[in-house]
Design goal:
It is a single chain. The protein is of the alpha+beta class. Among the domains are: 324 residues, Alpha/Beta hydrolase fold, catalytic domain (Rossmann fold); 121 residues, Prolyl oligopeptidase, N-terminal domain (Methylamine Dehydrogenase, Chain H), CATH 2.130.10. The strands form eight sheets. Strands 31-32-34-33-35-36-37-38 form an eight-stranded mixed β-sheet, with helices on both faces. A seven-stranded antiparallel β-sheet has the order 8-9-10-11-12-13-14, with no helix packed on it. Strands 3, 4, 5, 6 and 7 form a five-stranded antiparallel β-sheet that branches. A hairpin with a 2-residue loop joins strand 24 and strand 25. Helix 6 crosses helix 7. The radius of gyration is 26 Å and the shape is globular.
């Protein structure tokens, strides 16, 4: 374990820009007039993926970044070895039971990807390898596993893989008895589910904008797949899943504010779909099945944080819904899991997740599982069995490694099955976590989760890394990361701002940070940074901020508003060209996200987006040191957004602080897929962060 290093030490390496000059992107003006507003985009040409000029520019930026970061190469390697030494490279996941088999994955030292396996009836039985991702990755720089679905008779595995990072998955079927692949092969698939006849598959397929819009039925060996459902509204995406008891296949269609479900018996795959409740307004509902009843989580009527109802399968429409758990304004009902005798409800209260157990055979009997730490994450793990009294969940905090528990819902006893091993003598008692609150300009209290190594003083001199996201109603998970110890052990405080636009405080928290209220997300983050400075956890000279994707939008908006507030920024796959992207309906995700950001084809919503769009609002002024990262095959935030952002910022910034763009030329939104490659990327980021904080060893 590294010892704590103070930041008073003189850096061994300096990232100040030297004689190495950054590339200069050519300007090819493109003029657009929208709602009478004229905008000139000099870097639209960077969208021409594969063009020699585009590739050349990205490679030149990579070469410049490597040159600026060259003094940290030894530090990067040291960090990599340090982080690698904490990981148990040959390891085994906790097996879960399904249809008479125990399924698990394992890793082997030196191999990038997991190996998926199973054992029949007993963990002492001989191992069957169902899927070796290392073998599938041969010849590819990237590999991601999508679907992994075993037929009810346990003989066939339907799986999908992506080898580019563009999240374009190909479905194949493996006979687990022989190890042979069946000739069936289908491109651009999303969700994949078996019918109970073990010969019929249901899969969703994407359109050209990567929207899952059709559900097909495929008979093994068949050539002409039947179209089961097509979603014609571009705001909606199609998916399917089976109930835990395997009785029904649900076909869902969802926008970001409304849902609609149909179903058919899984033992009658050619049956017609039956509608549960037609979409209307902003009605969201989610469905599972048990004992002839559908259990439905719904936000109507007047139940923004959801309530729970049941309805007979024979008459599923809303007129027949019976409430079993009422709406509570201060409790967000996030999920529900049906078992033969129990219902597990995932809730969130005061920003913290809870597990609520309801005994369905004993009306009114319920209890919560309590967790003692001030800030943490908890969620259901893999629970494939329906007829069971045991619920498996995963728990972690900023100081507690990921831990898998089995919870007996009858005796209320919890059994720790595995805590992720942290090699090298990790002692959680050496670290402290807190949950504090900042105050936003409108008086709203913003939670902040922190972790640091004990012994630091709140004197305003501590280096601090502040992370944020704040979009899509997504609660920022408070999780453990062994890599983070390389920061904490060097005296860095790590903080997470739970800002509006996320889901920490329920639906209202999301509502207050989207559409016309999006500016709250950015001012909440600024208020969080100011509070940490005021309370002397850090100072502007010692503050680094970090975010990815929509969190990268956050980074761009914040530094446009308050470039003086932070010393350095790490912006990963940042969504920074919001105006142009949301005007282009041909791009993946655009139309479906009108309900999150707004539709710029409407004048008032255009004005809201333009007011905060990072690319649009770049200005001639000093900016902090910045590392901007992207991937060439990203299908969620196209590489050209950060590339254009950096190119334009270079022409405007009035400071001499480094501005770095690093593009992974063979990956997607999440960066490198192999675990060692991903660790190399983390060591690069950490070397940048630490060197900016004056720490270089």
């Amino acid at each position: 374990m590294a010892t704590m290093t103070t930041t008073a030490e003189k850096p061994d390496a300096d990232l100040a820009v030297t004689d190495t000059q950054p590339p200069v992107a050519k300007k090819v003006p493109k003029t657009d007039v929208v709602h009478g507003d004229t905008r000139v985009d000099d870097y639209f040409w960077l969208r021409e993926k594969g063009h020699a000029d585009v590739t050349g520019y990205l490679e030149a930026e990579n070469a410049y970044t490597d040159a600026v970061m060259k003094p940290t190469e030894a530090f990067q390697e040291s960090l990599y070895q340090e982080m690698l030494a904490r990981i148990q490279e040959t390891d085994l996941s906790v097996p879960y039971r399904q249809n008479g088999y125990f399924y698990y994955s394992r890793t082997e030292e030196g191999k990038q990807y997991p190996i998926h396996c199973r054992k029949r009836e007993s963990l002492e039985a001989s191992e069957e390898v169902t899927l070796d991702l290392n073998a599938l990755a041969e010849g590819h720089s990237f590999l991601a596993l999508g679907a992994y679905a075993v037929s009810d008779d346990t003989n066939l595995l339907a799986y999908s893989t992506d080898t580019t990072g563009f999240r374009e998955y190909t479905l194949q079927i493996k006979d687990l008895r022989t190890g042979e692949l069946l000739p069936d092969r289908i491109e651009k698939v999303g969700s994949v589910n078996w019918a109970s006849d073990n010969r019929t598959l249901f899969y969703s397929m994407e359109d050209e904008a990567k929207r899952p819009y059709r559900l097909y039925r495929h008979a093994l060996g068949g050539a002409d797949d039947a179209l089961v459902y097509e979603e014609t509204d571009a705001l909606y995406r199609v998916f399917a899943y089976r109930s835990r008891d395997k009785a029904y296949l649900f076909v869902g269609s969802a926008s970001s504010v409304a849902t609609e479900y149909r179903f058919l018996p899984s033992d009658s795959p050619t049956a017609e779909l039956t509608l549960i409740e037609a979409r209307h307004g902003e009605h969201e509902y989610y469905v599972d099945h048990r004992a002839g009843l559908f259990y439905i989580r719904t936000n109507e009527p007047d139940a923004r944080n959801f309530r729970l109802v049941t309805t007979p399968v024979s008459t599923p429409e809303m007129a027949n819904w019976t409430e079993i758990l009422p709406h509570r304004p201060d409790v967000m009902l996030e999920d529900h899991d049906c078992f033969a005798r129990f219902l597990v409800v995932s809730e969130r209260e005061d920003g913290l997740p809870k597990l609520h157990i309801l005994a369905l055979t004993d009306t009114g009997s319920g209890h919560r599982i309590e967790f003692p730490e001030p800030t943490y994450s908890v969620a259901g793990d893999i629970n494939k069995e329906f007829d069971t009294d045991v619920f498996r969940f995963r728990y972690q905090s900023l100081v507690t490694p990921l831990s898998i528990f089995d919870y007996d819902m009858v005796t209320r006893e919890r059994t720790l099955l595995k805590e992720t091993p942290i090699l090298g003598g990790y002692d959680r008692n050496q670290y402290a976590s807190e949950r504090i609150h900042a105050t936003a300009p409108d008086g709203t209290r913003i939670p902040i989760s922190l972790v640091y190594r004990k012994g630091i003083e709140r004197d305003g001199k501590n280096p601090l890394l502040l992370y944020g996201y704040g979009s899509y109603g997504y609660p920022l998970p408070v999780g453990f990361n062994s890599n983070r110890l390389s920061l904490l052990d060097r005296g860095v405080v790590f903080a997470m701002a739970h800002i509006r636009g996320g889901g920490e405080m329920g639906k209202a928290w999301h509502d207050a940070g989207k559409m016309q209220h999006k500016m709250n997300t950015f001012t909440d983050f600024i208020a969080s940074a100011e509070h940490l400075i005021k309370e002397k956890y850090t100072s502007p000279e010692k503050l680094v901020i970090m975010g990815g994707s929509a969190g990268g939008l956050l980074m761009g908006a914040v530094v446009n508003l308050r470039p003086d507030l932070v010393h350095a920024v790490v912006s990963q796959v940042p969504f920074v060209d919001v105006v142009n992207t949301m005007l282009d309906e041909t791009l993946p995700l655009t139309v479906g996200e009108y309900l999150e950001w707004g539709n710029p084809h409407k004048p008032d919503e255009y004005a809201v987006i333009k007011a905060y769009c990072p690319y649009t609002n770049l200005d001639a002024k000093d900016y902090p040191t910045m590392l901007v990262k992207t991937s060439l095959n990203d299908s969620q935030v196209m590489y050209w957004e950060p590339a254009k952002y950096v190119a334009r910022l270079r022409t405007l910034k009035t400071d001499k602080n480094p501005l770095l763009l690093k593009t992974n030329m063979g990956a997607g939104h999440g960066g490198a897929s192999g675990r060692y490659d991903a660790l190399k990327e983390t060591s690069f980021d950490y070397a940048f962060i630490l060197s900016q904080l004056g720490i270089t060893r």
